[in-house]
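pinging the channel bc i need a second pair of eyes. not urgent but kinda urgent?? the chain im working w is below, pasted from the shared doc
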Amino acid sequence: MSDRDFPDDLDDLESAEDFLNYFEIPFDATVVHVNRLHILQRYHDYLSKQEAGKAPDFEAYRKWLTLAYEDFVGSSAQQEKVFAVFRKADGSSFMPLTSLTS
């Protein structure tokens, strides 16, 4: 892979497994199966916080993907709250039964 091919290679990656294999990151298929969208979103979030004006290279992409994957190895989607639905539901989805009776 050359630096010239890197953007084209990224365009061809579709699944979390594709990304992990491309960047040669060992992974547990069960963790990825359960959390694939969360891992990819966290990866995107890490990349978006990259230093402004600095284009990430292969090693930076690999580092951020490794961190995103590892976030879910010992945790869960509910704990990590990657998506707004988990952040919003935190504490606001409970309604006591007494509030329904008058």
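so The helical segments are 6-12, 16-22, 29-48, 58-71, 77-80, 84-89. and The chain has six helices and no strands. — does that match what u expected or am i reading it wrong
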